[in-house]
């Protein structure tokens, strides 16, 4: 299917948006439709059918996606708001769950702006299949809003029965919106089953008008009033859809930042929930069928897959699983213990007719990356000739296993100005020898939320957010890459997210590496330098294994907090203010490491943090070990000579032991 690119609204056009905009309307139908799940699709009684469709209509049923797909899971807290009106009609809007007691919708839906009173209301959750009410549930809604604001067109209403226990809740985000940022809108247009607007759905440039409204090009209909506007990169609600402009062909939403400033209920609800299950989109070819069977059969299946599909992008994953589950255990050696056992997937080579060559001078198979991704078979290779390939604000989406390989790494670059230059959702694949640069005001170079991805000998640059952002069920392997600039080099978050790294370099970030929300990382032989705030953050239950690495000139080289935990061996920390801080339940075990010339302290432990330190060298700093405010630890066999103070133990420190240290 071809993808039509819509022009993003220009700054000049955005200046003219004031006069022509009108509030979106609830879809109105006969009173007899109130209480039904399935409503016959027809023109609403108001005669107002299209709220604002931009070009050809692209609002599609969410049932087009698998039951366990990320989009279906994302839409679970979003439902239809049914309104019985005193004028004898039934109105339909959209609302979504923000906590166990409350929904968010438009003020013009409930209590309403037209002078027509709402006599009854209910929230319908789980209505996702057109024409079928199976799985849908009704919840009663209080007619009197807990909070509402006509100017911001929002209302927080009470819902009974706690639908969040089954359907979850949406995450709210009050951060600024980026120009041309990719968006989704999920709702119930014309009272029908849940639909999503994706194609051509983006913010304008600039994103926010002089009125303080988000201007977007997402298709909506009557009944989409109260729909969440969702940022693609992190699936958080950034605005509340509410109006359209018939002259300019654009829609409007109220930025969540403005609403959060006024709403105490939503401020309290803005704490992110646990991440939802994410399942990569299915792919299909002969090797994909074998892969599905291999996972069911186990060792014999992996063997058959590797014999038949050795050049497929999933082959490294099959080899890893085979090595883990099927190989006879070997005696452990000192070398195995030092390096942790596992290695990164080997670099496969192209085989057969599964290669597409991209060249901007027409000497290849195609001249652009979008065509290459569309035409390459699953498990294939895209070989990229030298040049700068600009993927604009839409970025390049990868949903099937493949390899992107630069033929000349020194002169080959993929760049884009949108929320993500590369969006990786395939079950496997590799990026080799490329410079990937995010050039916009906000966004990431590589975004991954599913499958396995290896990035090898590449340069990853973002001027603002993370260069690489991995979450949910992402399994990421990074080897011999350079990360440069931006707020963050690498962000990994989510219980099933895992990253393994070797031989990478991070420099000139605010926060070089961050692990959160129970993510797991194994980091070996990496270098981190000149980060202005932190070199490596481990928090919200994330787990770290750090070996043979070097940190230089960083304010806080390693920070563990909020139940983050780690082990550190044979790692060097030089200069900066603090080498390691453990706080707020964070804990770390450090062995055979060296911390030299910290301006404040080598180790600081406080606020319920815990540090086990042994056989390490802490020298030429103001404080070797600083224990404060309920911090605990055990310090044995360390060399703390040549510090101004080997230990500083403050009143209120927790239990700790110190034995056989050289002070």
UniProtKB/TrEMBL annotation:
Coiled coil: none annotated. Residues 326-355 are annotated as: Disordered. Pfam families: Beta_helix, Trypsin_2. Residues 334-349 have a biased composition (Basic and acidic residues). Residues 1-24 form the signal peptide. Its EC number is 3.4.21.-. The keyword Signal applies. One of its GO terms (molecular function) is serine-type peptidase activity. It is an enzyme of class 3 (hydrolase). InterPro entries: Beta_helix (IPR039448), PbH1 (IPR006626), Pectin_lyas_fold (IPR012334), Pectin_lyase_fold/virulence (IPR011050), Peptidase_S1_PA (IPR009003), Peptidase_S1_PA_chymotrypsin (IPR043504), Peptidase_S1B (IPR008256). Gene3D superfamilies: Single-stranded right-handed beta-helix, Pectin lyase-like, Trypsin-like serine proteases. Keywords: Hydrolase, Protease, Serine protease, Signal. GO terms for biological process: proteolysis. Residues 430-557, 563-651 form the Right handed beta helix domain. The keyword Transferase does not apply. Belongs to the peptidase S1B family. This is Serine protease. It comes from Pseudoponticoccus marisrubri.
């Amino acid at each position: 299917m071809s993808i039509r690119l819509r022009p993003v609204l220009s700054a000049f056009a955005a200046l003219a948006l004031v006069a022509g905009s009108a509030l979106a309307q609830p879809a109105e139908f006969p009173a007899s439709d109130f209480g039904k799940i399935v409503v016959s699709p027809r023109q609403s009684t108001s005669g107002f059918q299209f709220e604002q469709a931009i070009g050809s209509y692209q609002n599609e049923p969410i049932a087009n996606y698998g039951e366990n797909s990320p989009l279906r899971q994302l839409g679970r807290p979003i439902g239809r708001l049914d309104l019985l009106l005193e004028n004898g009609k039934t109105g339909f809007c959209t609302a979504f769950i923000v906590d166990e007691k409350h929904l968010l919708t438009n003020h013009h839906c409930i209590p309403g702006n037209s002078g027509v009173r709402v006599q009854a209301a209910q929230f319908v959750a789980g209505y996702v299949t057109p024409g079928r009410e199976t799985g849908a549930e009704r919840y009663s809604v209080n007619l009197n809003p807990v909070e509402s604001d006509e100017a911001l067109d929002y209302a927080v209403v009470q819902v009974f029965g706690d639908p969040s226990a089954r359907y979850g809740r949406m995450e709210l985000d009050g951060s600024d919106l980026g120009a041309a940022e990719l968006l989704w809108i999920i709702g119930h247009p014309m009272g029908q089953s849940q639909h999503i607007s994706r194609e051509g759905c983006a913010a304008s440039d600039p994103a926010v008008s002089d009125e303080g409204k988000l201007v977007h090009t997402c298709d909506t209909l009557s009944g989409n009033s109260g729909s969440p506007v969702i940022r693609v990169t992190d699936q958080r609600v950034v605005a509340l859809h509410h109006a359209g402009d018939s002259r300019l062909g654009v829609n409007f939403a109220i930025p969540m930042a403005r609403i959060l400033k006024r709403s105490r209920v939503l401020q309290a609800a803005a704490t992110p929930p646990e991440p939802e299950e994410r399942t990569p989109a299915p792919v299909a070819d002969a090797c994909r069928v074998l892969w599905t069977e291999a996972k069911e059969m186990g060792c014999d299946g992996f063997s058959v897959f590797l014999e038949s599909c050795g050049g497929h992008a999933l082959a490294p994953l099959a080899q890893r699983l085979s090595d883990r589950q099927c190989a006879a255990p070997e005696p452990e050696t000192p070398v195995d213990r030092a390096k942790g056992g596992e290695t990164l997937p080997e670099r496969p080579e192209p085989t057969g007719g599964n290669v597409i060559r991209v060249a901007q001078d027409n000497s290849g198979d195609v001249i652009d990356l979008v065509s290459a991704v569309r035409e390459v078979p699953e498990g294939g290779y895209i070989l990229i000739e030298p040049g700068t390939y600009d993927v604009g604000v839409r970025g390049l989406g990868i949903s099937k296993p493949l390899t992107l390989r630069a033929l000349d790494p020194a002169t080959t670059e993929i760049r884009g100005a949108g929320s993500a230059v590369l969006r990786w959702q395939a079950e496997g694949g590799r990026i080799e020898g490329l410079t990937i640069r995010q050039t916009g005001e906000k966004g990431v170079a590589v975004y991954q939320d599913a499958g396995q991805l290896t990035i090898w000998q590449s340069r990853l640059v973002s001027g603002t957010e993370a260069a690489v952002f991995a979450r949910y069920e992402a399994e990421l392997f990074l080897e011999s890459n350079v990360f440069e600039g931006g707020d963050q080099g690498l962000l990994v978050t989510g219980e099933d997210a895992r990253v393994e790294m070797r031989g990478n370099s991070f420099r000139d970030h605010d926060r070089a590496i961050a692990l959160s929300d129970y993510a797991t990382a194994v980091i070996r032989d990496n270098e981190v330098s000149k980060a202005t705030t932190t070199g490596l953050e481990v928090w919200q239950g994330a787990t770290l294994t750090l070996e043979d690495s070097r940190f230089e000139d960083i304010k806080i080289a390693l920070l563990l907090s909020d139940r983050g935990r780690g082990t550190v061996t044979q790692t060097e920390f030089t200069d900066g203010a603090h080498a390691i801080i453990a706080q707020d339940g964070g804990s770390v075990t450090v062995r055979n490491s060296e911390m030299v010339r910290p301006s404040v302290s080598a180790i600081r432990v406080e606020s319920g943090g815990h540090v086990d330190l042994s056989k390490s060298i802490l020298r030429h700093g103001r404080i070797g070990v600083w224990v404060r405010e309920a911090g605990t630890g055990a310090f044995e066999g360390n060399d703390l000579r040549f510090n101004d103070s080997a230990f500083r133990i403050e009143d209120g420190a927790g239990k700790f032991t110190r034995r056989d240290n050289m002070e």
